[in-house]
Amino acid sequence: MDLKITTLAERPELAGPLWAMDDTWPEFIGNDPIAWSMIGRIVKDLPEYVLVATDAEGAVVARAFSVPFALRADGRGELPDGGWDQVMLWAFSDLRHGRKPDTVSAIEITVAKSFLGQGVSGRMLTAMRENARARGFTEVVAPVRPNAKHLEPAALIDTYAQRKRDDGLPADPWLRVHVRAGGTIAKVAHASMTVSGSTAQWRAWTGLPFDTTGPVEVPGALVPVHCEPERGYAVYVEPNVWVRHVL
Question: What is the C-alpha R_g of the chain?
C-alpha cells in the first residue's frame, strides 16, 4: 500500500483533516476529561510527535500521537498504574516546567475504518519508534488498549494480557503487533482511563438504559461500567497494558 507518513510539524495543513478521519472510537471514550483536555494540546504543542499517514490521493488514513516525558524524574521511575491518563499529565507538566524528557509514550494510533486490517497500525507503530529514535530517545512505552478485550469484558485484564497463542505471541491482536515490533509486556495499568458521567449522559453516549445497579456491559468497553442509577451516575475505569519498546 502506498502511504506517506510524516509528522504534523512537517505538514501542519493536516491538523484539521486528521480529526475528520472516520474512526471506530466509541463515543464515551472522548468523555475522559484527560482526553478531552489534552489530546488537542498534543497537536498544538507537540506536532513533531504527531504522525499522519496519507494515501495516494492525499487523504488522511491514519494518525499516531505520542508524548515525550521524564519517566526517571524524582518521584516516578515506574510506569504508572494510571497509564494513559497519568502519562499525559506527566508529559504536559514536564513541558510546562522545562523538565528534560527521557522517554516517549505512545498515546494513540488510529486507522480509518476503510483501511483496517491492512497492516497500517503496524506501520504507524514502526514510524513512531523511528520518530522517537531520530529525536534521540532509546525507549518508547505504550499504554496499549487491547483491541479484542471488549469482546470479553468480564475477563480479568491480568489474565487476558498474558494469554498466548501456540506460537508464543499474545492472543490479543494489538498486543501481538507490539510484540512483533520488538515490544515487551511490562505490567497492567489498572486505572489507565476514567470516564464518569450521569446516567443520562451514559444513555446518550451508548443508547443503553443504565437503569440497574451494578456492572453494565457497553459495546467497545474493555470492562463493565459500574452503574448507580439511584444516585444518578455511572463510572468506567479502563485498564491498559504497558508495553516497553527498547530502540
Answer: 18
Nearest to 88 by CA among 39, 30, 43, 133: 39
- The residue whose grid cell reads 494469554 is 163
* Burial status of residue 101 (CB atoms within 10 A of its CB: 0-12, 13-18, 19 or more): buried
- How many Å apart are CA 39 and CA 30, to the nearest integer? 10
User: Could you please report the per-residue DSSP string of 57-73?
Assistant: T--EEEEEEEEEE-TTS
Q: How many residues does the chain have?
A: 247
Answer yes or no: are the C-beta atoms of 46 and 64 closer than 8 Å. Answer: no
DSSP 90-127: HHHHHHHHTPPP-EEEEEEEEE-GGGTTSSHHHHHHHH
Grid coordinates given for 17: 483533516
pLDDT, position 1: 80
Residue with cell 443504565: 210
Q: Is the Cβ–Cβ distance between 172 and 147 less than 8 Å?
A: yes
How does pLDDT run across 45-65, given as a tens digit for each residue?
999 999 999 999 999 999 999
CB 18 within 8 A of CB 62: no
